[in-house]
Amino acid sequence: MATEPITGADIVIRALVDQGVEVIFGYPGGAVLPLYDALFKQNQIRHILVRHEQAAVHAAEGYARSTGKVGVVLVTSGPGATNAVTGLTDALMDSVPVVCLTGQVPTHLIGNDAFQEADTTGITRPVTKHNYLVKSITDLSRVVHEAFHVARSGRPGPVVVDLPKDIQQAKHEYANHANQRHRSYNPQVKPDRALIERAVEMMAQAQRPLFYIGGGVVNSGPAASQMLTELVRLTGFPCTQTLMGLGAFPASDPLSLGMVGMHGMYESNHAMHDCDLMINIGARFDDRVTGRLTAFSPGSKKIHVDIDPSSINKNIHVDLAIVGDVGHVVEDMLRVWKARQAKPNGKALAGWWDQISKWRARECLRYRPSDEVIKPQYALQRLYDAVKGRDFYITTEVGQHQMWAAQFIKFEKPNHWLTSGGLGTMGYGLPAAIGVQIAHPEALVIDVAGEASILMNIQEMSTAAQYRLPVKIFIMNNRWMGMVRQWQELLHGGRYSESYSDALPDFVKLADAFGWTGLRATKPAEMDDIIKTMIETPGPVIVDVAVDEKENCFPMIPSGSAHNEMLLGPEDQRESPISEEGMVLV
Amino acid sequence: MQQQIERHTISVMVDNEAGVLARVIGLFSGRGYNIESLTVAEVDAQRHFSRITIVTSGTPMIIEQIKNQLRRLVPVHRVSDLTIDGPSLERELILVKVNGTGEKRVESLRIADIFRARVVDSTIESFVFEMTGSTEKLNAFINLMQPLGLVEVSRTGVVAIARGSEAI
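^ Those are the sequences you sent over. The predicted structure of the assembly is below.
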């Protein structure tokens, strides 16, 4: 496919177009001027100008996670690249496919401490799935295509391509390497059939089985979620989801136990502890889920389905490991289950469900309602009630509000819940919401935020204003870094060191300053009207909800504790101080 | 859950490209794995393959993690655990500088002879010995040279290969 020589910058654009890229999120600078010039001269790719490079990556994550496509970022060298590092790490921890193009000083200046030079590949090596420094124009088209392949295949993740300025200006022929097989990187997606047979056997014999599903199901695509839903319904087994897996199984299904883990449901955590067969599909036994490892589900056999072999036997030893893409694995499980006309152990399963109903009867999300102050849980219940019939997407920041959102907002479909799980990045929600809104212009996109987190990427209000994106920010304002305060209360004798949100801006005036609409709610009775106004206002809206300052997030597994040692509310909290071992954990 | 610490020799075939060694070393330091020895050199110039030999230690669960994490690196072609994949050979090369005169000098030569070390440099008051062998044998040689005027050691770290006709 010999063609006319074109510039490196044009090669990059051609490769992006051939990869199906429609949008990139970025911020210009000296070392990427040729690329921005090439962008200016074309009309196939839309560029969204963010206000900070970290936000570019989060926006690309929001775009990627709500569409299943690769999110693309373009930033300059030096500070552009270093600002992107938090976003890249976030994408790595949550397995989000992102390709981040970074400018670099010209090759002959690399290593010279040139202006805006940073060792980008060195800095990003541990926080990316892979990275490249393109030192020769002849490698350029291959590398850009390869970056997309690596980002989206196997366990997805961020890939950095560092592009020296002279490479962007050099000329060479473009070649489409889109379908080229990689010589060393070929992740296994199809599972071993014999293992599927064994898994089905174990499932048919189980007395107290439990599906434990995670973000891997979402990453595998909506078809994987559908097949998994069919499998769960066919077996009649209970199904619990991780924070990242919310939406992978319909929350309204009676077989769903809701979220598992530190702030997960009482019934989920007890079922996790007492089950005799755990079927982990696309989750990774994260420390927020397992609690104390030595007390984790002591009596169960464990099946673990994961596309990443390094996730298997990392924290928890499993009895049956199946490496493969969730979609393929579940499809095979379904086929084998049907072909064998397998039946679950009906009598044992009925007893298991009886036990689960008893746990459910504890109503672990119960809180003390109030007519005077807005309880954060109440605010989210009202929000969920108002949006549930619509096509809605929820992003969050990190902290108490994030856990409450995970508890009180129910998801029926994957890709509609976007939160920073692994890295726990405050400041994720607003830029992620922007990325979602770009991909779904008609949808209702709400960033459930805390007053502290939102300030970490507040400058992105300007981005939303520029592109007239009708994102909504729903601030649960308790004037505290709530989760920090909760831990200080629990672990540090109520010494609230630096966790008070002092000198907060007036968010309504701030909205005005950015050309947004600002609303405020201070009484429970106002909630419904405010939420309705928020939804009906056409442009971007910030809602400042003054919630109960004292409320803590329950239920909770205190760090260092087991699943059956949950605290259900402030009363439990006083009775069970946390061990010294637990204090060390985060 | 208490598991025994084991020592394993792992061979990693990688593309010989910029940064590949940094990826491997960064993986070990970032995840807190041990490196007892590490060697690297290109072994196939035509296909640009380098071979990294790593001696590491950890519980069986950690060793398994190390191998899986290595396999996850994009430029890694093959990871083989020579310690469990069958019988294998391990060799290391050292250069040892010993200064001395008189009886000590003669004794160092005698021991070098027993160990089949070669003299590769000599002055009136010094020798440089070259020797290959297993890590244990080299350690024994170094220990014996200590009282005889050993002043400097340079060693390559372990290279290893499986016995038999199979190639990795």
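The longest strand of chain B covers residues 88-99. Chain B has a mean pLDDT of 96.

Shout if you want it in another format.
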